[in-house]
Write a structure and sequence with these properties.
The structure holds 3 protein chains of 3 kinds.
Chain A lengths: L2 H6 L1 H13 L2 E6 L2 E6 L4 H7 L19 E5 L7 E4 L10 E4 L20 H6 L11 H4 L7 H9 L3 H7 L8 H5 L6 H16 L4 H11 L4 H8 L3 H9 L21
Parallel strand pairs in A: 1-5
Antiparallel strand pairs in A: 1-2, 3-4, 3-5
Helix pairs in contact in A: 6-7, 6-9, 7-9
Chain B lengths: L5 H13 L25 H15 L4 E4 L2 H16 L1 H10 L11 E4 H9 L1 H7 L8 E4 L21 H8 L3 E2 L13 H4 L1 H17 L4 E4 L2 H17 L7 E4 H8 L16 H7 L5
Chain C lengths: L11 H11 L11 H5 L10 H10 L2 H6 L2 H4 L5 H5 L6 H13 L13 H6 L2 H11 L2
Helix pairs in contact in C: 1-7
The chains are: A alpha+beta, B alpha/beta, C mainly alpha.
């Protein structure tokens, strides 16, 4: 194409170029069937491009709900890979299947009756002891959690460590699908995190104090006064309010100290 | 060790420090599986103990000391497998591709071996501040320290290591015929009534040789004998209760450490009462 | 006990599998009975260890399946260290157990263990028990 022609119709050229860029397609295999999908799409978008519709479960599309767990292989590689369909971009030759759900044992319990003892986990999930430390769960985790280590922590009675290690868990169930011992790791972790949060983590003292102060009526007077202020006056109060400067020290006080 | 068997671990760590050894816990350890898999084709159950050996290797250590006899057995047998069977070693290393290769570079020992071979009974006796005089304690080995022959830390038929240990601490060891008889092990899960029977045979034998207490190396033996004893006392009022000690507790006591580190409250029997009678506890 | 030995009842496949899984030569056993004598739990077994080996050698799978002996075995290895022929019985016991467990026929279920026991048992009891009795 000569320079002259290009300058004559830049808009048309731009559209042509855009179409050419958009047309770069790569092959992927969804449940064994080959599809050509545009490069750069996430697995989820690629599946929708191919004509699949997600009518239930999927999902938050933000990497948090755990409904789009995907296992795939690359051509010529025996290794199993895992990803979240809403996060992972497609690669040529990806051979995949979704595991949106995997049956997992979930113990029934009244949380309010539980203590912080590690035995609570042993009682509710005795299959915890079937773990053989094969590490298949860790390899199957799309969040990069050290699943085997967290299960080991639960076995050792260290709920705090298990809770911390499993913090990023989105309950996708891929670990459970690969588990040799038939454990439902993510349910055990959830129990661990609940026990940790409710019974083990120290309470924020300043929060307790503040709530107490509020309940004792520290802010009743100002709230009462504000309720009786007219709208215009309220707007003026808001616009003219004092704000703590960025560089304020510990001992900064506002000029109006009536409500402190 | 962090929950129910604190009374095995804490006195061990404290005692070894006094003896000049720092016991470092290997990071990221996992449960070794407790029992060694006896099937020829089973490799998945070797993964857990081998992984722990790899952790020890990662720390640059050439020795892994265990406190619990049950784990000692599993780890040592797995280690021998990795050393002797090239095909299985290669398969396991290939399977655990996220770990470094392992070929048996670490040596697995039980703490009693460390006491006997690296410290020596004479040197240990010299460090004893509170000789456990008149404490008639029967050494109970159980199975895992002595069987199979390739892992045994002492003579399989006539072990003497615990006797020597107790003598170094100034105690009076009481030999009895059932000291290497199995406590029933995992049968507590499936046939708990049988466990009471085995406990009865072992404890009766020790009692008939005038033992006042038993010294143990394994938390499962402790549970089986302790619970078995409880059942016996329920059924037979005249059954004389014995105190069950871990060898590390007696070690800490004899070295003059604060008894709190022993956590006697977790023991079966009435260990503090017995120790007070012998003027070994204030 | 009386056992009928006939070509129709001898299960060659069973013998082959036991030999493979245990790595032991069943022909080594000369039925001296040292194993049974040393076994600390033999009093609770219906068939003695010695009898199990003989039945295994002949491939009499049915008698072994009807016996609870292999499930009473505590893997204490007293038999193994005392066998004059160096035969490892503990491996044969394990092989026979596994032939059942690998068919997904568990001998105990975690629900059978009371919640209180699950709290009190040392973890190694649960781990080893589930290993030996579940597949």
């Amino acid at each position: 194409m000569s320079v002259k022609e290009e300058n004559k119709n830049p808009a048309e050229t731009a559209v042509k170029e855009k179409k050419q860029i958009a047309a770069k397609l790569i092959p992927i295999y969804i449940m064994g069937k080959r599809y050509e999908v545009p490069e750069g799409l996430t697995i989820m978008k690629a599946m929708e491009y191919a004509g699949y519709k997600f009518i239930r479960g999927c999902g938050c599309r933000g990497g948090t709900c755990g409904a789009c767990g995907t296992v795939y292989r690359k051509p010529g590689d025996y290794k199993l890979q895992v990803a979240l369909a809403c996060q992972k971009t497609v690669e040529p030759g990806m051979y995949m299947a979704q595991i949106p759900f995997f049956p997992a044992n979930r113990a029934q319990y009244e949380f309010a009756d539980l203590t912080s003892a590690p035995e609570e986990v042993f009682k509710l999930y005795p299959e915890l002891f079937r773990c053989v430390a094969c590490n298949a769960c860790t390899k199957a985790c799309p969040q990069g959690i050290e699943v085997m280590d967290a299960i080991a922590a639960l076995k050792q009675g260290n709920i705090a460590e298990a809770a911390q290690l499993s913090f990023d868990c989105i309950q996708c169930g891929l670990c459970t699908s690969r588990c040799f011992g038939e454990l439902a790791q993510y349910h055990m972790f959830q129990l661990g995190r609940r026990i940790y949060g409710a019974n083990i983590l120290p309470r924020a003292e300043h929060l307790i104090e503040m709530v107490k102060a509020v309940n004792e009526g520290r802010y009743d007077q100002i709230l009462d006064e504000l309720k009786h202020v007219k709208e215009d006056e309220l707007k003026k109060l808001y616009q003219e309010r004092e704000s703590e400067p960025m560089a304020a020290g510990e001992d900064w006080k506002p000029e109006d100290t009536r409500y402190l | 060790m962090k929950t129910k068997a604190r009374n095995l671990e804490e006195p061990a760590v404290a005692s070894m420090e006094v003896l000049g050894f720092k016991l470092e816990e290997i990071p990221r350890w996992n449960c070794c599986g407790a029992v060694y898999s006896l099937a020829e084709d089973d490799l998945i159950h070797q993964v857990a103990p081998v992984r722990n050996l790899i952790r020890a290797k990662e720390q640059g250590q050439d020795k892994l000391a265990t406190l619990c006899a049950f784990c000692f057995n599993t780890l040592k047998r797995a280690n021998l497998l990795m050393r002797e069977n090239g095909e299985k070693r290669d398969t396991l290393n290939s399977f655990m591709d996220e770990e470094m290769d392992y070929g048996g570079e670490v040596k697995v020992v039980h703490l009693l071996e460390v006491l006997r071979d690296e410290i020596g009974w004479g040197a240990l006796a010299q460090k004893v501040k509170l000789p456990l005089r008149e404490l008639k304690v029967a050494p109970y080995y159980g199975c895992t320290l002595l069987r199979p022959r390739e892992v045994a830390i002492d003579n399989v038929e006539n072990p003497t290591i615990l006797r020597e240990f107790l003598e170094a601490l100034g105690a009076s060891p009481v030999d009895f015929p059932e000291s290497t008889r199995c406590c029933g092990s995992y049968q507590i899960i499936s046939n708990p009534d049988d466990i009471s029977e085995y406990a009865r045979d072992i404890l009766n034998s020790a009692l008939s040789h005038d033992a006042e207490a038993l010294v143990l190396t394994c938390p499962l033996c402790d549970y089986n004998l302790g619970q078995g004893q409880k059942e016996l006392m329920k059924k037979h009022n005249e059954f004389k209760e014995m105190s069950l000690f871990y060898f590390t507790q007696l070690l800490a006591l004899a070295l003059g450490l604060d008894p709190q580190v022993c956590h006697f409250e977790l023991n079966y029997g009435s260990p503090e009462l017995l120790l007070r009678e012998k003027n070994l506890l204030s | 006990m009386s056992v009928t030995i006939s070509p129709k009842r001898l299960r060659r496949e069973f013998v082959r599998k036991v030999k493979e899984l245990s790595g032991q030569n069943l022909q080594l056993c000369y039925q001296c009975g040292m194993c049974s004598g040393n076994c600390p739990v033999a009093s609770n077994m219906d068939l003695s260890p010695r009898q199990i080996i003989e039945l295994a050698r002949l491939g009499l799978e049915e008698e072994i399946a009807n016996s609870k002996t292999v499930w009473i075995c505590a893997s204490c290895l007293a038999c193994t260290v005392n066998c004059p022929r160096g035969f490892d019985l503990s491996k044969v016991m394990e092989a026979i157990r596994l032939l059942t467990l690998r068919k997904n026929i568990d001998q105990i279920h975690p629900e059978d263990i009371s919640p209180q026991e699950r709290c009190e048992l040392p973890q190694i009891a649960m781990v080893s028990g589930l290993r030996k009795f579940t597949g």
